[in-house]
Model the fold of this input.
Amino acid sequence: MRSENTIRVIALHVGVLAALFLVQFVLPDYHHLALTRVMLLAIYAMGYNMLFGYTGLLSLGHAMFFAAGLYGAGMTAYYTDLGVPLAFVIGIICGAALSLVIGVIALRTTGVAFMIVTMMFGQVAYLTITYFTDYTRGEEGLTMPTSARSFDLLGLHVDLTNAVQRYNLALGLLALTLLVIFVVVRGPIGRVLIAIRENETRTLMLGFDTFRMKLGALVLSGTISAMAGAAYGLMFAYVGATFATIQYSIEALLFTLLGGAGTILGPLLGSILMFYIIDITSEYTQAYLLVTGVALVVLVLFFPKGILGTIRERWLSWLP
Amino acid sequence: MTDKTSAPKSSVTRRTTLLGMGAATGAGILSSVSPGFVRYSHAQTSAPIKLGFECHRTGIGASYGRWYERVARAAVKIINEEGGINGRPVKLIVEDDGTDPKRGAEVVEKFATQHKVDAVFGTLFSHVVVAAAPRAGELKMPYLVVSEGTHVSSGSLNRYCFQPGITDVRSQVTSVAPWITQNLGKKVTMIFPDYAFGYDHRDNLPPAIKAQGGEVVEMIAVPPTETSFTRYLPRIPADTDVLYHIMVGPAVLTFVTELGQFYGSQRPQIFGFIDSVEAVDLSTPQLSFLDGTYFWEGMPRYAQKDQSEWDKFYRTAVGVNENGASIADPKDIATYAHMYGVWETLFTIKQAMQTAGYNGPQDKAKFIEALEAIETFEEGRDHPQGNKIFNGKNHQVYGHHNISKVEGGRMDVVHRTSIEDGMYEVTADYTKMSL
Done:
């Protein structure tokens, strides 16, 4: 039974990735472009879900990790000649380092206090970007130079202005993220994280170093979010302080809640749905955020565990 | 100027790349038969010319967006009543960008790939422009902004970005500096928002004042999140002749109130940019301290005694009364000093498309070159704010500015700058970038 479920789970995730690969051949241009963005935002939300959905830590400042990757990569590409691949790596390193520092401090708190502390750090990150406006151009932001719109790697020439290449790069990063999260949450570490989420005191009494485990989850979560930010800035040629505002922290939370916290594919589904809810409703009404809000209220009332969370609870108990 | 954004484009199209990849996966077959690949057919000559208006309907720019949209609809109505452009009607497609840079870039992509518009126009806030411009350039979508920021004129965007309807901050600052030093005083203290828009003022005013024999004695940057200004006001030097302020956003009422409390009846001369109080009723009690102070205006909010027939026509067409408020609702104050830029941009699009014989997306390069070839705009119905000079190299227009004095709850123009007052040496040259 266990191996049968494993096969189902692997088949589902491979199937989702295959579907995302194939769908590019039939999508109209706009949706092709939109899905590229959505996949990167989904990576961000999947990173968020690692901390919130699996470890039970609700951060309200996660945009700082996205922004760390965005600015780490974007400013490297803008001010240096190190090239896009190295800029991308530097962006990820910035996010990892920041999440380690923030984790060591913020994880001294729990519950509501953790939410407030992460929100405050998020605000500090935003203000830091605007404080150094001479370099970051603050909320106005920076557009990437021509030199950062293409690169050569392992004999391949990658053109970031090419929609097809951008789509498949985003898909590759999404696949990598899926794989990492899949391995972590289906393995022993994932079980400990879930145990912490359900009852941290009991997990501690069982002999696990819960602080270290939570720190690891936060660093992994922040690093994945930073990778999404670095890719977003480099692929769409823009970095700006807006991405560090609390709005973007809330978005990751909403994507996760909508799709299903604690499910691997929930954030991806939530990102897609949220994007199209806003995209379509904004064509008809200025009150599209109200519509979005009502949709979320309905969701919380009838599907409190999100779409995939509810499906798992009612029908597909094997869904990871 | 360095070409930063005109990336060399691959001659390989998305379709051919996909087909190449599909050969390995068999998906090429799928692509050739799926209804998802059905594309909009090319516009016929009788089909409308589609213009995408990237509008700040929501978000921090909503008060501007509301009026920009009214102006756009009024201008398109007139253009269509007069036969459209090259015999084709103009269809206005509006998308809300939420005054958000991420959404702004998405909206440009949507205009280019879903609505398949012929040009995008109307974006105001700098951060949205800067985020959307690279995508406009890469999608080869003409992008005509009404933003004032120096991002277009400085050459930091790309060949598809233009600002033909409104002057940039550098020009505005340069043009008012002589009048400030000659009429208000030579020692100037600046209070400005601590972000990029404020920096455009910070970087351009001191040299302009210095060139007139004056001096900026203090520059006070206020973080955008600040809600009270009392701790900044004591930093204003006592020997300040002129306080120069650009406080944009809802905090302006607090700023003016606290400024009044700080100075009482003894104050220096005060000069500000109307951006602070656009869409705000000057008779608001908290703004009473502004009486006797001066503002830069692109177009005078209050109808002047020597009002031109073009201002009369334009004012009526966009539904604004002689006090700068909506005819339908006198409490709804217009963003009158700026919104003419949308009107003039639309008539510029019409002019350039007619010059280029524009007949569809295949003529976009001709359209861009026709825009770049424009040298002047004559004052008239299409350009009611005044005559202008257009620089085809940096894609920026230069024109007159008004300095108005607040008295009795209204503003009257006391000085109108010449076009030359706002000219500066242009180093950017977008025409060197490929199309």
User: Anything to note?
Assistant: The radius of gyration of chain A is 19 Å. The beta strands of chain A are 142-143, 150-153, 156-159, 238-239.
